[in-house]
Every structure is written in structure tokens, then in C-alpha cells.
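Box 3.1. Reading complex inputs
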Amino acid sequence: MHKLLDETAGKKIMLLGNEAIARGAIEAGVAFATTYPGTPSSELSLNLFQISHETDLYFEYCTNEKVALEVAAAAANSGVRTMCMMKHVGLNVAADPLMTLAYVGVKAGLVILTADDPFMFSSQNEQDNRYYGKLSGLPMMEPSSVAEAREMTIEAFELSEKLHEPVLLRTTTRINHSSAFVSFGKAKEPKTKGDFKRDPMNYVTVPAVSRKLHARLLERLAEAEKISETSEYNFIKGSGSLGIICNGVSYLYAYDAVKELGIENKTKILRIGLSNPMPVKMISEFAKGCEKILVIEEGEPFMEEKVKSILQEAQLVLPVRGKGENFFSRLYEFDPAMVKKVIAEYFDIDYSPSIPVDTSKLPEIPQRPPNLCAGCSHRATFYEIKKAAQGMDIMCPNDIGCYTLGFLPPLGMGDFLICMGSSVSTSCGFSKATDKKVISFIGDSTFFHSGITGLVNAVFNNHNFTLVILDNGITAMTGHQPNPGVDMDKMNLSGYNRVSIEKMVKAAGVEHITIIKPFKVKKSIEAIKEALEFKGVSVIISQQICTLYAKSLKVLNPRPFTISNRCKDHRDCINEIACPSFYIKEDRVHIDPDTCVGCALCAQICPENAIVPLKTKK
Amino acid sequence: MDITRLIIVAVGGQGNLLASKVLGEAALISDVPVRMSEIHGMAQRGGVVESAMVFGDAKSPIISNGEADVLLGFEPSETLRAMNKCNKNTKVITNLAPLPPFTVAIGKGVYPEIETIKTLIRERTPDLTAFDALKLAKQAGSPMTMNIVLVGALIKKQILPLSKQSIEQAIKTKTKKAFTEMNITAFNLGFKAAA
């Protein structure tokens, strides 16, 4: 049985924030769940996916976040409790349905999880998705801890049904990827089938309908503000004339700092957990007893600006600080010591910070950047493209996935990247605006996510570039989730179809399609050369299963290679493909037999044919 | 309850997440509040993996620079890199078996001498426990048990409010049945290795 389905009363276990949210959804009786995977939200959907194999929960990995939200919107409007999960930038993709779904509303609870990533541990930007609450007019909830994430998920479903609107549940990486003890509550029996009553004058958003629905949304938002005023998730801790207003993980740092600074008797903290709409009356009442206020929030001055406007309207004059020099940054994530320092300085409290040891005189420690895995097929494809394009003036838009790492030396294949699917569409722009040969890279999952529309555009507008689709048969970066091109039989799951990338590309009208097996180096380079010479849109599909995925399916049979005494130390292997299985000992290259999987890429490029299969059985 | 802050640094694949799971389970058994935080995603592709564990009555799940009470390093150069988490009272425990980053192989950077690493840590902090945990892990039966060897050393130092028994119980529930005995051996070898 899945550990999140344990119904032992009062069960307390150590859970990851994402698992706590999944458990909250189960307790709320979630019956329908959709997602496109994205860190830091991935484990949440992965857990619900696993749970769906054991229960009546319907779960779907969708082609992208827009699709996921639309599928979810239909389920919730059929009266089935639904959860839709994505990372922060995923909500940009889903923003179109989001904005008008807010007009239409929902019948059963719909909770949309958006996982923000301050500091960009695994993202391309650190946008603050609290503005989506404001932009769409939807209520937003923000937990401060793992345990609260479970409770708040349940409450978000209740709130959604009370208001007949989707609720945005916003986390940050430090909630998703923190662990703490969580006590289980009782799970509600899910309602798995609903019905849809046809009512076009409320559901078909032509202008006449939408004008009415927008007014209704504002009424619901006013109702939400009343709830926000008395919600148990907007609470005040302590009393005194020094005021702190905070949200999310900042509350934890503020709480610890106030305690450590010994100012509990003169400080009060307002923790905002229901952050859209903000509790206006509560904030002005809170401010009345304050001498000054500090707003502690990662990201943008979302609450700070609102607090200032509330105080202006209430004609309260007192200092309110948040973002700015000597205060908090809009950049990156916060940490406890930083929060303590700002609180102490602003409130004029004596304190002695922990002083880190002097690291200025430490020798430079060699960097340990992430690298494509040993035996990763992307390395072979990048190498072959580079070889085939030798002498050409190239530039390479890349996309989002493990293969983004191809931009690092020595492969150096990646020159431009902004978002999912951008490789294909930016190739259109670069090939028209420059005279360079444009070669772009996209993975299988990202191609389905948002590469197809760009490719159709390229064919229609008669562009001239080569798109390389790196098809490793799985969504690898986020932890091996399915996508429409995946062979679900390999996962022992039935009831799915498989969409052929090659047929999709053909159907889009691409006239030059090449399939390569990247571990056949010479043959691949020849085929790539031909594709690069084609005038127009050419597509190369590089097919090879992800090595890590193959390992997890137990279909990988590692056959490590070794370097024989024929080696003349050219070091092409190290200098051109840089597989992490290589190491230098006594000034000679060696291969670590424990990590080498025997892809034989290096063996094929060694000018002395010195790299050979390791004979001795391990 | 007093607050104890532990940083664990390792290289992806060295098993620090399992080590922190075992410590978390032991805390649950011992009724010690704990919060931990780890970094997933891009960091898993051969990069550095850092876990923070805060035991006792604190709410924060992360640890600022200079605020670790103990630093547990699975790889000597990574221990050195994480010194910014230490203050002049921080206790340091490190494995001494190096796992040089790939950048060294391609000539981008020089791996520091092990003796130099020890000296640099000793010059900055008062209590260094350093030994070849990989050797002990192999002695226990598998290099994969290195994480538990290091947990053994950590518990011996009595910095965390966790007993030897609670860890042994946690190993039994959190590690695979087939490896329980091996892990208990590894734990005891690490426990003995720390003075």
C-alpha cells in the first residue's frame, strides 16, 4: 500500500512537503488530478500518479500545463474534486484558461498548485506567482510549513466550493522540498463521477456572458475578502508595538528570529496564509497598535505595497519597510540569519550574529557542476552534430530538459533559451534575422509540450533550420514521467496509446526527416550532414532510451569499457565528450568500470581504437 | 528543547538522503522535533547535494552561513567547500576518501591534498573527526553503506539529541531488509571510528 494511503488513526510520519500536499488532497477526497511535471512540484504529482494505480483516483500526465488546467476545469465543472499541479512557469502556459476559468468558476473544488522557485534551484526564472491571484481574481493560499501544507490543501478545496472558484495553492521550493512530521487525518470518500448540466448562458464565454460573469467574479472576490478577514490562516502571534507581516517560509524565519532576539514581549507577527484577497480590516487593525512595521516576503513587494495602500486609506501614518537597500532583496531566497539581521537593525535590537569562519584564504576547490550522466545519449548526439557541422557558422537554440546541460564545455551546444518550446520558434527568428546555420535541440516531452506549434509555424512560413529532437523515451529531468511518446507497456501500464514523433513531424509537412541511433557515431554523422545541407526545415530524431530510465526498468546491461595500452594519450575522449566515467590517474586517462555503462561513444572516437570492452567479469 | 543544526554535504549518489531519512526517523522515535530541507532537480546530475536538519524547538528548515553546530561531509573537498556554514564552535566530521569532480579530470582545477584539507578545517574549527569512511563501509560489506558509517560517527560525537538505540531502530525501518545487518555493522564501525 502507498504510504500516503495509510488510514491508521493519528499516524505521524516524516513527509516531504509535496507528499504532505498529496496526503491533504487524498484527505479532501480528490478524485481527479492533472499535471505537467516540473520541479519543485514533481513529487506531488508522482505520488498521486502512484496512488491512482491503487485507488479510484483518476490521474493524468498532460501534454502541457494549459491542457492540464483545461482537463481539470472540465472535471471540476462536472462536480468532481480536482487538483491541477505545475511549477510556477507552468502557470504562464496555463494562464490563458486560468483567466477565463475564473469567470466561469467551478462546481466542485478545484485546487491549482503553483510551485515557485526563489533562487532558481531548477528553473529559468524566479517570478512571483502571487500576482496570478491578483491578476485572475482568484483566492490564493500559501502554507508556511510542511504540516500546514497538508491542512491548507484540505481547506483550499473547502474554500473553492464555498466560493465556486478555483483556489491557487502557492508553495515555494522550501515547502515542496522540506520534510517534517505530519499527522494524518481521516480521508474523505471521493466522489468519482459527476454530471454536467448544459447551461450555455453561464458557461460559453461570449462577450454578453462574460460581462455578467466578470461582475459575478468581483462579487465572489468580495465574499473571499470577508473570509480572508476571519480565516484561521491569517493570524496574529504575540503583542507589542513592533509589527511584522509575513507569509510562507518567511514566517518561520521571523518566528525563530523574534524568539532568538528575545523580543517576543514587544513584537507581534501577522502571518498571511490567505494572501489573495488580503484581509484589509485585519491589516489596518493590526497596524493601529504598531510603532513601525516590517514586511517580510520573498520575491516581489506584493504584500508591502498592499499594506502601504491599506494604511493610506485608513489614514494611518507609520513607517512600513520591506524591500530596499539595507532591508530585503527581491532576489533569491531568504535565510534565517538574514531575516534576523534585518529585524534586529530595523527594530534597533542588540544582537550578536553567528560569524562564519574565514573562508577567504581557502584554496580554490574544483567546481562540481551538474553533468550529463555516463552513457547519456544526448552527449553522443551533441558530439555528432558538432562534428557534422564543422566549418559551418552555426548557432544553437536549446530547450528545457537534461539536454540543456549540453551548453557546457566541451560540448558547447546551446546558445539561446527562454522557455519550454522556445528552441523551435526562436529558430524561426534567428534563421530569418541572421545568416547563421541554425540547429536547435528539443527533447521528446518538451516537443509535445510546446514544440509542435513552433514546428508548424516553421513549415508554413518556409523557414530554414535543422531541429534535432532528442527522443530518450521519457520525461527524464523531472524524474521519469510519461509523455505521449512513451511506451507505457514498459511501465506495465495499460490503457494508453502512443503518439509517434516521426508521424507528427511528417504530418506537420516537414520534408526532410532523419532518424539516427546516436550510439552509431559514423553513420549518425553522415546522416546529420545530409540533414544540415537541406534548405528548409529539416528534422533529425535521435532515438535512444535514457540510460537512467533503462537502469530503473532493469533493461540496461552495463558492459564497461577500459583503456588499453594502445592509448597514445591524445585525450580526444576527455577533451571532446567529457563523460564523467573518465578520470586521470598518474597522468593517464582511465574509465571507472562502476559508472561506465558501455555506450561505446568514446571507443568510436578514439583515434587509436584504444578503448575496448573490459574483459574481466566484475 | 535546545536547537542543534546539522548540515550534510555529499555528492549525488553518495546516499545522504537516506542518511537524513534515518536521522529523521530516529528523531520521530525519540520524540525530538526536526525539520529538514534538501535540494532536488538539477543538483542531482552529479552535483553537490546538501541537506539541512534542524533538531529542537525551531521552525526554520534551513541553516544560514555560520550557523551550523555540526557539519557532516561525505566527501573531503565538499566538506571544505561547506566551511562557510561553520562558525568557530562548529564540530566537523568528514569522510577522507576523495571523489574528485570531473572538472579535475579535464584539467579545470586541482584537487587539494587530503592533509591540507584536514589542516585547513582544523585551523578554523575546534573539533574535527576525519577518517576513511569508504574503507569501513567496504569492511561492513558494501561501499554503499558509507552513509551509515558516517551516521555512526555523528552519533558517537553526541551532538544530536539522538541515542544509539534510536538510530539502530531507524536503520531497521528505513533501510532495505536485505541490507539491515550490513548497515548495523557499518553504523557500529563508524561509531567506533569517531573518538
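In summary: The longest helix of chain A spans residues 207-230.
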